[in-house]
């Protein structure tokens, strides 16, 4: 079976005063149907930028300059970056992007995708909700996106809902209070969604503005908004950051349950390694805008699994103890991609331990390639050229 | 193609060079003697078309070229005079209104609001009517009452930077507050704003000087100004724009100052805009 | 009932504010020797009973600067006259009643300023739309540069060109409205302010959230954009009001601007005072409208810094 999402050579650039920096460079991975992929890495390693530019949500210049992103949904295939080459041209190694044309093109594609088949929960949800609208207006809009959703069993018998009845009942953009008497199908659906994300008093929440709620509440509301459209593909960007521990646990349970029940696929970004290991099937390790290791979660997260990239090892160690600090600190940075050799070698313990000159020369002169060490487990490091022969 | 792109700024550079040469010429006051010799005043015609002795003609007992050249310095002086109170008041009000909560901050804030609310031309008109003063003090007043624009920009910048970490770091380093505000905020981060506002207010001052001298307010005898030239040019009925330039009734006395004013204000506004765009680019906003 | 009470309290507050501001303006007027002289003449002519009787006016050269108390008594008398029978006094130059300023002149000036504001905002919105959608194409860029050039032309020159150049002795009001909306850098300034606000909205987190959720962008941005438009219009209003004054003078429209400049040239200080009051009222109401819109539309808590 073909994967649901294929990302090939996705390159994202940002221009800072005649310099070109790459927050994501030739990123390549895929997500199978019914699979959740986690992306881990320190902050600043390009995780968020990668998924934002998958869907044309990045807001800096020049943004995506190359690559291919392909979704295969149940009812058809969508290639997002197909027309990118029409808008980007290179002159003396610097990209020039026709931002206006590109924006128009990507909006046209993503309009039918975002909020319908793909749902994204961005980080820091309190700021991503519109501060000028109440929660019930957000929910109502998302539910109306997908009329089919509202026709599910919650609809009382004898009262069929047509598209026109929704249009007639649609509220104006300026706020009208929700009274408990005027419950229609949309509101029932909204309440059901809010109950689903563990709100005890949905009516109170519905009449509030985002700034009147706490960060955790907004996070749960974002999840409810994402679930409202029954997406096939879910993207979660740091869903547990900034929440207290009990909330984190209940949120993890909630997401796990949703995952099991609705058979969705998706991407999860987090630095929270226990959360990642609970909820995902495969893990991508990113550093400085590049993927260094990709493999099943059980192998990557297992502390005694033999083949492991030095950076992954460092990540795991620093999550569990303070050992990580002893092996040097990896500092992710935006790279200009001009230097030769592996960028990790200054901090890499493997490089420092090994005395073999031939191996060190490779690290010094050539950019490491991917090597398969196990089925579906790839590592970008010269040390694994012969499946972990160097120890 | 690259050469063409560089040529983009040529007209503006050329105009400004000519303008500065005119200022120099006007200040040095070197003109051939025959330009200064004008025929006696008659009731019939205030305007004599160009001739050999007077290359641009005579208008109201004055050689047109002399009045055009001598008006250039007065527009420059108008801009410069406005600039100083504008900068001083703008920076003081901006820094004052972004301080900690207190009576001084409240006062600065209210002052900015009140000064912003009144139309500047009306204030100047009433001031001139009440206190009957010369054009320079009116321009100084203009500089003061347009200071809130700069003050608001500086206030926004300071408040924006206050939230960032490096200001906390400088405070933690123990630097005095005035060093932080004037060096780290105003000089390192705010100089583009100030520079673009300087060009903008210069253009506005040139326009305001033209307006005031057009209305004949606060002008002494012997004052040369493009606005004044326009004022006189409107009073001669038979002249018109819509003739060929060599026609004796072509309105040269109005065209000359118009060209000067339009070119000058456009150049200044263009430069101001250019600096603003630079600032935007540095912020990374598309 | 409570809302009625609120409205009543609010009305009283506005009246008190107006009285305080007009009193301050009157103080500024009286502090000028020239105004004291001219208004002294006026008081001696119309209200001789306010003066103790030892000042007698003989000719123009006599010093008619009265003691300060006389001016204040005059101020209160004048105010009561206005409130009682709408008598705003008489012009010192021609003797006509000043309440006529409330008729045609006020209407015309307001019409010019407000229409100018709407036109300049409308044109600027259109230009922003062009810039955002076709800003890369060369003709559009040239067109935008051309409008910037036209906008940098001074009111005097634009109005002069139309009025004397086209020889329109009685132009329809649309022409001064267009001049006011475009000239003196008003259009450029409005354009820049609007596009900067739009940029701020488009680079905000919640816009990203709206896009990510695939919501209707127009519906979501209606409120913030209205708020910023009203704010910009309120900020531009004084400048346009000043612009109407000079355009009226050049195009010879008998409205407040012409009256003001004539009053300045004729030393008609009472008329100037009335005009100052009127301008104050305009500006207060425009500010009030702005604040009302912000309060009604913006649910976010006000951050006092
Ligand atoms: S390629 Fe060399 S330097 Fe880079 S991570 Fe592997 S061992 Fe370390």
- How much beta of chain C, percentage-wise? under 5%
Strands of chain C, total number = 0
Uncertain spans of chain C, ≥5 residues at pLDDT below 50?
none
CATH class of chain B, anyone? Answer: Mainly Alpha
Would you tell me which CATH topology of chain B applies? MetI-like fold
Oligomer: heterotrimer
N/C terminus separation of chain C: 35 Å
Describe the structure.
The complex is a heterotrimer of chains A (391), B (286) and C (305). With 391 residues, chain A is an alpha/beta fold. Chain A has helices spanning 47-54, 84-87, 99-111, 125-128, 135-145, 147-150, 163-169, 185-196, 202-206, 215-228, 245-262, 273-279, 297-301, 310-320, 349-353, 357-365, and strands at 5-16, 19-31, 36-40, 62-73, 76-79, 88-91, 94-97, 118-121, 233-237, 265-269, 282-287, 290-296, 370-374, 377-380. Chain A has an eight-stranded mixed beta sheet, sandwiched between helices. In chain A, strands 2-1-4-5 form a four-stranded antiparallel beta sheet. The longest helix of chain A is centred in the middle third of the chain and has 18 residues, at 245-262. Chain B has 286 residues and is mostly helical. Chain B has one domain (74-283): MetI-like fold. Chain B is built from 13 helices and three strands; from the N terminus they run H-H-H-E-E-E-H-H-H-H-H-H-H-H-H-H. Chain B has helices at 2-6, 10-28, 33-36, 64-97, 103-117, 120-131, 135-145, 147-162, 165-172, 177-187, 191-214, 226-234, 252-283, and strands spanning 47-48, 58-59, 62-63. A three-stranded antiparallel beta sheet of chain B has the order 1-2-3. The longest helix of chain B is centred in the first third of the chain and has 34 residues, at 64-97. Chain B is elongated. Chain C is mainly α and 305 residues long. Chain C folds into two domains: 2-87; 102-304, MetI-like fold (Orthogonal Bundle). Helix content of chain C is 74%, strand content 0%. Chain C contains twelve helices and no strands. Chain C has helices at 2-30, 33-46, 68-85, 104-134, 138-151, 155-165, 174-182, 186-202, 205-213, 217-251, 256-266, 269-297. The longest helix of chain C has 35 residues, at 217-251. Chain C is flat, with a radius of gyration of 24 Å. The model of chain C has no long low-confidence stretch (mean pLDDT 86). Classes of the chains: A alpha/beta (391), B mainly alpha (286), C mainly alpha (305). Chains in contact: A-B, A-C, B-C. At the B-C interface, helix 6, helix 11, helix 12 and helix 13 of B face helix 6, helix 8, helix 10, helix 11 and helix 12 of C. Bound molecules: iron/sulfur cluster (SF4).
